[in-house]
Each structure stands twice: as C-alpha cells, then as structure tokens.
Amino acid sequence: MGRHATGPADAYFLVEAECHYWVIYVFLDGDEYLASDAVFGVKDELVAEILGRLSQSAPRIFYRYSFIAPILSVPPPTHNGL
C-alpha cells in the first residue's frame, strides 16, 4: 500500500475562550511528511509557516498561527438541568 507510520512535525495547544476548550494541533510547513500523514489529520488551515530558528542546530523554532474560535450560541444552564 505504500503507507508509513510517521507523522509530520506538530505542536499541540489547549485554547480556552469563554469557558470553552479546544485542543488544537498545528503542523509545521516544510515537513517531509505533510503530504503523506499516517492518520490523515493534516489540513491546509492547520499548517503554520516557520518564521525562523535560533540556529540551524537548535530545536527551537518560531512560527505564527492565529487561533480563531467559532462563535458559539449555547443556552445558559437551567436549575437542575431542566
């Protein structure tokens, strides 16, 4: 089948907004496994462009990604869940 078990480089974030929580993972642009992700989780809107590195040998990189939370319309809780 030509598949592999290697995933692209990614970072996970826990984002909180107005008492709602999301776990968001962001993939790093240029990774060799972006096009052949083992679990098919890569979407264009989840790929962040790398802005720079401290040095070529340093594991730290800098990238920018905007988290945009959807507008949620959730009714307020009622007494005894009714």
What does this protein structure show overall?
This protein is mainly beta. The protein has one domain. 0% of the residues lie in helices and 32% in strands. A 3-stranded mixed sheet has the order 1-2-3, with no helix packed on it. A two-stranded antiparallel ribbon has the order 4-5. A hairpin with a 2-residue loop joins strand 1 and strand 2. The chain is extended, with a radius of gyration of 18 Å. The termini are far apart.
Write a brief structural summary.
It is built from no helices and 5 strands. The protein has 82 residues and is mainly beta. A 3-stranded mixed β-sheet has the order 1-2-3, with no helix packed on it. The protein has a two-stranded antiparallel sheet with strand order 4-5.
Strand order of the largest sheet: 1-2-3
What multimeric state do the chains show?
single chain
Which class best fits the helix and strand makeup?
A: mainly beta
Number of DSSP-assigned strands: 5
Helical content band = under 10%
Please describe the biggest sheet, giving its number of strands, its sense, and whether it closes into a barrel: 3 strands, mixed
The portion of residues forming beta strands comes to 25-35%
Rg over CA atoms = 18 Å
Low-confidence stretches: none
Look at the structure and give the mean pLDDT.
75
How many alpha or pi helices? Answer: 0
